[in-house]
Design a protein that fits this description.
Length: 390
Amino acid sequence: MTTKEKDLHYIMHTYGRYDVALQSGKGVVAYDEDGKRYLDVSSGIGVNSLGYCNDGWVQAITAQANTLQHMSNYFYSPQASDLAEKLCTLTGLAKVCYGNSGAEANECAIKIARKYSFDKYGDGRNEIITLQNSFHGRTVTTLAATGQEVFHNYFFPFTEGFRYAAPNDFDDFLRLVSDKTCAVMLEVVQGEGGVNILDKDYVQQIAAYCAAHDVLLLIDEVQTGVGRTGKLFAYEHYGVQPDLMTVAKGLGGGLPIGVCLCGNKLKDVMSPSTHGTTFGANPVVCAGANYVLDVIANDAFLNEVEEKGTYLESLLLQLDGVKSVNRLGLMVGIEIDGDAHAIAAQCVQNGLLIITAKDLLRMLPPLIITKDELREAVNILEKTLKENTP
Ligand SMILES: *Cc1c(COP(=O)(O)O)cnc(C)c1O
């Protein structure tokens, strides 16, 4: 059987795949089983932040794999404590809790928010306001947190206690918030929802309300974090400080990690056996994440992300068939004439690995992409759009 045949036979069909089996990669370039070359502006959905097989990252994880590949969370780990120190120092947050994915990090944040409120106010103050069109994960609880009806099917009963506010509408937030509310959970740029950038005023109004009412501000930085938007974390664009933040996709540079961080007032909420994970805080993964942060967490690197994003946007806006661009840093949604899903599939055949979000094309290129590579990517998109012009 070919890879595709085996996949279709043995793997549950939870994804519609592009017609390519990837074999290897270096930097921004991937190769399929036949040796065909692809430029990748998707990074495995914002995961390969330093591109494929970055030398320093490979060295960090192989050295750790050759030293100690796993220990349980009953032991202290230098790699996990170093990463925690870095994350807290860089954000001003106080403590971290490790997991293995974005959804898990969000589950952890939801648990912390509810326990904080339970400990302090007792039963019943447990509602969390999330936004319409958000995405927070695929577990039963994070699906419930996700403010899109299409995700609330089949798997009943969902976790109770989520209410969905219209984004950028503070009055709608005020309508939903009550003495039952313990937290507000949001992505400052909605990724899966179509690269929707929240208004600064709106986020600041919510943050001010939260601070005044001891409602926790939980920012999901699973997609926006670790340099993606040209700041280390996207909340920095907004002049607010979260009480809880979750990070995943780009942090591990390609290995699975999810981290929930909390501020000072929450640092003692979780006590032994209130949360846990067998694989979380894995030393190989943490060694890779330490390397990723060492590369990305500096102004020169982050300024380049923004500069490359601006350049990419200017190229995209010159194309016939591009109607508008939603962008922060190198998180890019492209509204086009025509069916984004069909165009994306055709781009892949033309050697450009690109994804979609809702009805938009979406680019989340490796942050190390060069301007030349961005130009090459836009050229392939241009060619593909032309092929589709009647
Ligand atoms: C991808 C994503 C998640 C879920 O992360 P997984 O690692 O797939 O569980 C949660 N929140 C946001 C904003 C995401 O983009």
